[in-house]
Amino acid sequence: MIMYCKLCSNNQLTQVNSSDNRNYFLCPNCNLISVSPDNFISNKEEKERYLTHNNGIEFKGYVDFLNIAIEPALQFLKKDMLGLDFGCGHTPTLSKLLAQHGFNCEDYDPFFVENNLNKKYDFIFSTEVFEHFLNPQKEISKLVNLIDKNGIIVVMTDRWNDINQFNSNWHYARDISHVVFYHNKTFDFICNEYNLEMLYDDKSRVVILRKN
């Protein structure tokens, strides 16, 4: 099987040494590391895994975690904006937290919450979702198309910075539902490719992008 990058379509990938039984490939063009489709789990297994997560506003740890993305984003949001939580999980929580700040945010999740996504949004949060994209080019294009001009996209996903992380016990790679891993340079590529401006970057987990 010929491997190609699911973000930039480059077909000159290099295999990454890993400490598990999955096959990882690095794209030297955009620095995305992806798992071979041979190692993907089924939709049923993926959904069952999500159902084990303690999501909900009653879980302080989960709320604190979501606030890592919410707090830096507040400076870019206005009360008349309409938002979307893209990949909200089985118990939508981020939209409830934003409501406490006076913001209107709809929910969507391909497994748990239907939304026909037939409108434009002023902001989109996608927390702990990008690493699950089987086809990041397709999904990121969808997100960008859902955002109005000058709209904001808030992304939370743990980034890799050392190739040796995949040959260690890095928790992000050991989660079998995680199939793509982003680098700082990957987000530089995304900004250039989709005409986005980087408004905020914590160099670790959260980026905030604006559509030009």
Work out the radius of gyration: 17 Å
CATH architecture field of the domain at 41-159 and 184-211 = 3-Layer(aba) Sandwich
In the CATH scheme, the class of the domain at 41-159 and 184-211 would be: Alpha Beta
Q: How would the global form be characterised?
A: globular
Walkthrough of the structure:
- Helices cover 26% and strands 24% of the residues.
- With 212 residues, the chain is of the alpha/beta class.
- The chain has a domain at 41-159 and 184-211: Vaccinia Virus protein VP39 (Rossmann fold, 3-Layer(aba) Sandwich).
- The strands form two sheets. Strands 5-4-6-7-10-9 form a six-stranded mixed beta sheet, with helices on both faces. A four-stranded antiparallel beta sheet has the order 1-2-3-8, with no helix packed on it.
- The mean pLDDT is 96.
Topology:
Elements: E1 14-16, E2 24-26, E3 33-35, H1 43-51, H2 60-73, E4 82-86, H3 94-100, E5 104-108, E6 121-127, H4 136-146, E7 147-156, H5 171-174, E8 180-181, H6 184-194, E9 196-201, E10 206-211
Task: Give a quick set of tags describing it.
212 residues, alpha/beta, 6 helices, Rossmann fold, four-stranded antiparallel beta sheet, 26% helix, six-stranded mixed beta sheet
Summarize the structure in short:
This protein is of the alpha/beta class and 212 residues long.
